[in-house]
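Worked example

This section walks through a single chain of length 176. The input is the sequence exactly as stored; nothing has been trimmed or padded.
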Amino acid sequence: MTSNFLQAFAGLMGNEGGFSINPHDPGNWTSGVVGQGELQGTMWGVSCKVARANGYTGDMRDMPQSFAAGLAKPKYWDPYKLDQVSQEVAFAVFDTAYNGGHPATWLQKASGVVQDGVIGPKTLAAVQAADQDKIVMAFDAERIDYLRSLKTWPDFGDGWMARIANNLRRAARTTN
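Given that input, the structure is written out below as tokens.
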């Protein structure tokens, strides 16, 4: 695993924390829908539905962090080609991909390219050529707008905003 990924994953774990079993969170249910299936919780931000779909059969409380890292790189880092963008942009996209949303289209909108949801050479070139702070700010603005539109905003909005504030502070400290 790349050192940028490992550093980003460590930061991500700071956002995610450990075990959670909130009955209002769809990620805590085996079906991915509140009130349907069994309430088993999440660990390291990995929903029980995703954990089970990827072969984890144990108690969610006991999931090793290495299992989460093993999922994160191929599912939430590599598809966005995050080894090819700055550290601060990579973290914003990675955290969003892991937490949920539309990171590819938001990155494309922030960089001024066609929003087709595919991170390819044109998107990468536009991101690399842009002011990285502006990319992160525009990206996070899209993320905030999206999160505010969710019906779960009343339950989780404060936590999401604290997460994004933490990410913006992280980006402000990042140097390339």
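What to look for: The chain has a mean pLDDT of 93.
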